[in-house]
Amino acid sequence: MIADIHGNALALDRVLDELDREGIDELICLGDVAVGPQPVESLERIRSLRCRTIMGNWDTYFLHGFPDPKDEISERLVEIGAWWAEQLSPAHREFMATFESQIELEVGPLRTLLFHGSPRSNEDFIYSTTPDAELDAILRGATAPLMIAGHTHFQMVRRHGDALLVNPGSVGLPFAEPAPLMRILPWAEYGILWMQKPRFGVELRRTVFDVQALVELILDSGMPHAEWWADLWSPDGLPPAFAPLAPAARPTSP
Q1: Phi/psi of residue 69, each to 5°?
Q2: Do the beta carbons of residue 32 and residue 6 sit within 8 Å?
Q3: For position 93, what pLDDT does the model report?
Q4: How far, in Å, CA of 254 to CA of 203, rounded?
Q5: How far is it, in rounded angstroms, from Cα 32 to Cα 14?
Q6: How far apart are CA 121 and CA 136, in angstroms?
Q7: Strand, helix or coil at 242?
Q8: Starting at the edge strand that comes first in sequence, how are the strands of the sheet with 146-148 ordered?
Q9: Which CATH architecture has domain 9-235?
Q10: pLDDT of residue 181
């Protein structure tokens, strides 16, 4: 499971290398592919994989227009997003139009529902702290033993009634804290769902990639607000638990 690549092909390549070594049966992308400093590269990687992909909120904006900004941060994001969108060809947009609103599949005997934000909207947020009553409204009666979402950029496993809700986190833009601060963690996140009858499990993983190379790429890209976007990746001031891992120190299991 990969989600929220956000135009970070460097992180995506690292995650795909690890998944390739795992020999997984199926890869599913939960959306928001091209919105970032490497929009073309990220979209073409996903297209080459021929994996099922869900329509994220930013994917929708790229195809149908950006929402009106509500504050200074969202104004910057719309300006940057418009620049990223200009990098895409008609063929890229045609491919994005094939993304699915949600995916339902059987993992062994386990019925699984996958979406970006929620079954009703790719702009809904489901957090570990979302109250049950609010979550009932968001899910709108959707039922499945396992539900997998993206969009929040926070890894999560939580119970809701009889269901297990999972978010694999963000490949390209994992948050240390939500908007408006948007400090970004210096790693890539993804998840693996495994089935070995009669058991199944979910693994949430993090892996390092060359963040400095990404920062240099951002600064050289010519995109609007490049210095601001690059500065979001700075590890300065992060709590010790968020310090980047050295490659040699990365654990071999989650």
Answers
A1: -65, 145
A2: yes
A3: 96
A4: 7
A5: 18
A6: 14
A7: helix
A8: 102-107, 110-115, 146-148, 163-167, 156-160
A9: 4-Layer Sandwich (3.60)
A10: 63
Select from 12, 6, 62 the least CA-distant residue to 34. Answer: 6
Q: Where are the domains of the chain?
A: 9-235
Please name which of 208, 229, 100, 114 lies closest in space to residue 164, comparing C-alpha atoms.
Answer: 114
What pTM did the predictor assign?
0.89
Which residues neighbour 191 within 8 Å (Cβ) at sequence distance 6 or greater? 1, 2, 148, 155, 166, 168, 169, 202, 203, 204, 205
pLDDT tens per residue, range 72-122: 888 999 999 999 999 999 999 999 999 999 999 988 788 999 999 999 999
Structure tokens at 177: 């804290």
Among all chains, which residue has been given the structure tokens 């702290």?
Answer: 129
Q: What percent of the chain has pLDDT over 70?
A: 90
- The pLDDT tens digits of the residues spanning 182-192 come to 789 999 999 99
Polymer length of the chain = 254
Q: Which residue has the tokens 């227009």?
A: 65
Tokens of 161: 């009634």
